[in-house]
Amino acid sequence: MHVAVVGTGYVGLVSGACFSEFGHNVTCVDKDAGKIEGLHKGVMPIYEPGLDKLVESNVKAGRLDFTTDLAEAVKAADAVFIAVGTPSRRGDGHADLSYVYAAAEEIAQSIDGYTVVVTKSTVPVGTGAEVEKIIRQARPDAEFDVVSNPEFLREGAAIEDFMRPDRVVIGTDAEAAKEVMRELYRPLYLIETPIVFTARQTSELIKYAANTFLATKITFINEIADLCEVLDADVQDVARGIGLDGRIGRKFLHAGPGYGGSCFPKDTLALVRTAQDAESPLRIVETVVDINDKRKKAMAQKIIDACGGDVTGKTIAVLGLTFKPNTDDMRDSPALDIVPALVAAGAKVRAFDPQGMEEAKHMLDGIEWCTGAYDTMPDADALAIITEWNEFRALDLGRVKELMKAPVMIDLRNIYKPDDMAEAGFDYTCIGKAKLPAGA
Description:
- By secondary structure, the protein is α/β, with parallel strands linked by helices.
- 42% of the residues lie in helices and 14% in strands.
- The chain has helices at residues 10-21, 33-40, 51-60, 70-75, 98-110, 127-138, 158-163, 175-184, 186-189, 200-231, 235-243, 264-277, 283-306, 335-344, 357-360, 397-403, 418-423, and strands at 2-6, 25-29, 64-67, 79-82, 115-119, 144-148, 168-171, 195-198, 315-319, 348-352, 367-369, 382-385, 408-411, 427-429.
- Strands 3-2-1-4-5-6 form a six-stranded parallel β-sheet, sandwiched between helices. Strands 11-10-9-12-13-14 form a six-stranded parallel β-sheet.
- Helix 1 (10-21) links the parallel strand 1 (2-6) and strand 2 (25-29).
- The longest helix has 32 residues, at 200-231.
């Protein structure tokens, strides 16, 4: 089949590359000529493991192309995916749908023959109906259906998630559209992937409900972690003990500095606003949003407390800036609350992240940027781990201790064991566990 994908951001580029890997002919469209030029040269606009090779192989096979010409891509397409950004709207937290609606207006002008228009972007309930209205008003003669097909991609594992998903959700009542979507996802039938067909508005809500539930699990275990610290319990043991219950599950029960990224913060807030407008408020989700915002801010104080309550004039080595490992995404990362608070408290911050520093430089001021993990440490008064990149999981503790002025580590991701750190002579602070004195 011929597929056009509007938007070459995270969702659009990964989806386009994976659809081409399924054997479809895909054209990815973007208004940013520089981005398209880079893609033609094999330069990825985002960091996602394996994406560069996937794009390269399908470009060579002639199944994947990139263009700024939306009209030509849409005319040839059996299905057009809208995969543009839906950031939180300033002032009220609603999803900003201006890019989605602008794409719909442009698509309408170029539809040629029956076309399925698919909203891949995360959008509130009712967006598909508005997209259909926009196209119908612009082109009363056009033959098309609008379908909801939300993405469930984890940054850092997006290709695997697309190629071997837990499920595919498709929102449409139109039989012709169902047949097109079945053909697009036909390779997944071979591995018995559940394909869930629903009404369009149900599909739109499923995406928000899924992300909000996961954000709630994260926030729940973070609150349990705070209780563990007071009661001298171990949050990792608690998480394992409850996660082995099949009704609960082990995923997303990892205590840390709070959730961030491109999805959870904006999607939880958007769902809160949608529910309030519908006069059916989601009190649990409202609380989740509030707790998570406060938690990220509280992590800076946790670091300050580990440094004796005052970081004025002290050097803090920071490892990890992105909201999670295996991505360069800085959006709503806990580091964006933690690092500025440390600087405001008078600390000198040296930071390193394997992939996120170029983006971080546009978002953080007053930081000394380092070229490697150990470069952050000479004469540092404390070391804070904010993101659990694999290369931070097996630091040479002897070398770390030798480089630092004081062996103080604040591990906001619990990647080390307190007893091991105490034995190594570190004053070690982590999340949801009792603190052991150095040498214990």
